[in-house]
Structures are given as C-alpha cells and as structure tokens.
Write a structure and sequence with these properties.
This protein is mainly α. It has one domain. It contains six helices and no strands.
C-alpha cells in the first residue's frame, strides 16, 4: 500500500482504493447476475462477439476479472450461484470488506 493510501485510510477508515473498486465491481456483478436474461447489461456481459480476433494473447474480459476478484477477496469459486441470493451476496461482500479492514489495521 502506498504512503498516500495509508494516509487516506487513516483519515477515512476505508480500505485501500483498489479493494474498494474490486468490491464495488463484485456488487455490480451480483446485481447483473440476478437480472432477467433479457436485460441489456446481462446480454452484454454474457454475449460473445463474432468474427476473427487478432493474434496474440486474448484480452482480459471484465467477467474474468470479476471471477478472479471473487476468488481472491471472498474465497468464492461459484460466484454465479452465490450472487442469486441478494442478502447472502451482500453478507459475503460485507465479510470481505471487514476482513480487509482487519488486515490493513
């Protein structure tokens, strides 16, 4: 954690900026997961684009980053199933935030 982030944490008692962003991303992913399949955000998130891709390493998709965040921050491997229950998902995110605060303190 950078010196600036440590100062911010002392002032506001909030976790590191990157962790906050990751947790917000996970909250949004849970929200989208609970949407009907006909909603535009869900269609965009789970659709595939046709055509040829450029040579080289495949680009990292947003959903891949969400899966990685869920594993690292919350220890969840099946994010889709866990996110179906709104209250359970909120609780898991609260636990992850509290766990990170304990580590930083």
């Amino acid at each position: 954690m950078s010196q600036y982030n440590k100062e911010l944490y002392k002032l506001y008692k909030e976790p590191e900026n990157t962790v906050t962003i990751k947790l917000k991303r996970l909250q949004w992913a849970g929200h989208v997961q609970r949407m009907d399949k006909d909603r535009i955000p869900k269609k965009i998130l789970y659709s595939t684009i046709g055509g040829r891709r450029r040579a080289g390493k495949p680009r990292t998709r947003w959903i891949d980053v969400v899966e990685e965040d869920a594993k690292k921050l919350m220890g969840i491997r099946n994010r889709k199933r866990a996110a179906q229950d709104r209250e359970e998902w909120r609780g898991v995110i609260r636990e992850a935030k509290a766990r990170h605060r304990a580590i930083v303190s």
